[in-house]
Design goal:
The protein has helices at residues 24-45, 51-74, 144-155, 160-177, 186-195, 207-213, and strands at residues 13-14, 76-80, 83-87, 92-96, 102-108, 112-121, 124-134, 139-141, 203-204. It is an alpha+beta fold. 43% of the residues lie in helices and 23% in strands. Strands 8-7-6-5-9 form a 5-stranded antiparallel beta sheet. The protein has a 4-stranded antiparallel beta sheet with strand order 1-2-3-4, with helices on one face.
Length: 214
């Protein structure tokens, strides 16, 4: 506990690469559009079908999109101490990075390439998006506090791979803090390594590749 405020010394830190609030207007429009289409389908089909069937068809059209929008809106990830909390449509996944049994950097190449942290603890595995970059050289990276807390949590794990990734995140943190160019940012260099291989499938960076990023 903090002696001044009486609050915990550490507070949960959001580690969503893109906060759900950013997509809220789009999800609202998507939901309204799905509802409107469902109503139209119901009214049109009621002309030659019974109301029961018309309502059923309207629901079949609207519900999947509404469910997707609701699920996306509920998706949220945060770090509380060394524990990752991943809020899903139903339930919540928790992984303690101090008990990590596997840690990897995984790159999804493409026009919008993503580099993510994949951690395993016990039977649970979680992907944590760290950055995404376009072919044009723009992109989005996890905020500084999120990088710092992830690096600290990984450093507490009794796993060499986790500690090595922690060093990469600290190097990325320093690069972002001084507004370094992309070529000086470890996460971008990791993506560039995979792009150079012309791979179209997700690629796990090897231990030696991870070491090169620091």
């Amino acid at each position: 506990m903090s002696g001044d405020s009486g609050r915990p010394a550490t507070e949960p830190i959001g580690i969503d690469l893109v906060a759900p609030e950013v997509f809220a207007p789009m999800l609202r429009k998507l939901s309204l559009g799905a509802f409107a289409v469902g109503v139209v389908v119901m009214l049109v089909t009621s002309i030659w079908l019974s109301w029961a069937y018309a309502v059923l068809l309207g629901l079949l059209v609207a519900v999947p999109t509404l469910a997707y929008a609701m699920a996306f809106k509920r998706r949220r990830m945060w770090l509380d101490g060394t524990v990752i909390h991943a809020h899903r449509l139903v339930g919540e996944r928790r992984i303690d990075l101090a008990d990590t049994s596997g840690a990897q950097l995984l790159v999804f190449p493409g026009r919008l390439s993503r580099i993510v942290l994949r951690v395993t603890a016990g039977q649970e595995t979680q992907l944590v998006p760290l950055a995404m970059y376009t072919d044009a050289g723009s992109g989005r990276e996890l905020h500084l506090l999120g990088l710092r807390k992830l690096a600290d949590a990984l450093a507490s794990a009794p796993l060499v791979a986790a500690v090595a990734i922690s060093e990469v995140l600290l190097a990325q943190l320093r690069a972002e803090a001084r507004d370094a160019g992309l070529d000086e940012r470890p996460l971008y260099r990791g993506v560039r390594l995979v792009r150079a291989q012309d791979s179209v499938s997700p690629v796990v960076l090897t231990d030696s590749q991870v070491a090169e990023l620091v």
